[in-house]
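Project standup — Tuesday

K.O.: blocked on the structure for the chain from last sprint. Re-posting the sequence here as requested.
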Amino acid sequence: MPAAPDVLRLPQAVLRPVRGHHAFEACVEQLATAIRLGVYPQGTVLPAERELAERLGVSRATLREAIAALRAAGLVETTRGRGGGTVIRRQPARRRSAARAAIRGRHADLLDSLRFRGIVEPGAAALAAESELDQTTRAMLEEALEAVSEAPPGPEHRQCDSRLHLAIAAASGSTRTMAAVTQVQAELDEMLQAIPVLPVNIAHSTAQHRAIVKAILAGNARRAARVMNEHCEDTAALLRGLLG
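H.V.: unblocked you, prediction finished:
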């Protein structure tokens, strides 16, 4: 089975040590969000228990309980024996009617999340452009861009889209920015599941993605922030119109 693409370094950036007395719930939340956003894509294998437990700062027993919850939710399968492991087997996305039901009563909060995204993600793009990016980080951005550009419309494209935005946040070098972008991407995913896939919008997004990454790699913080702001505004306008 293929290993998860650690070259993107997104697992390291997204998963953080758990704090507080609710280690189990926090583990489930972080791992489920990472799976939903494509940090661990469909068909890949989660890292070994020891590695995940150390990264999350929990016992292996707590981690096993969290993984059992992911299995019960239909996000992973565990195979035994040589070459076995916990494999991402996310069930098909919910129908739009079910997705709409899941966000019913939360429109005001989710629309506020879009406003927050319009502040955080342009800032992340500007920070990434201002950073001295090493070759590994530049390759991470280029590979994430290529993946979303080539992905077919649907769930695979949505996950690749999330990975690109998380890669930009990781390139910013700011852990707080990374956490904020992870949060808004998770909420964005909930909203996008509730509207149809629109090829015209995907084509527009692809052009914006290319312009954003080009600006970051060129060190042009002002342009990176401006295009990311346009990108966020376009998505927000679409969601405001279709979610009502």
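K.O.: great, moving the ticket to review. The CA atoms of residues 144 and 242 lie 28 Å apart. The chain has two domains: 6-88, 96-243.
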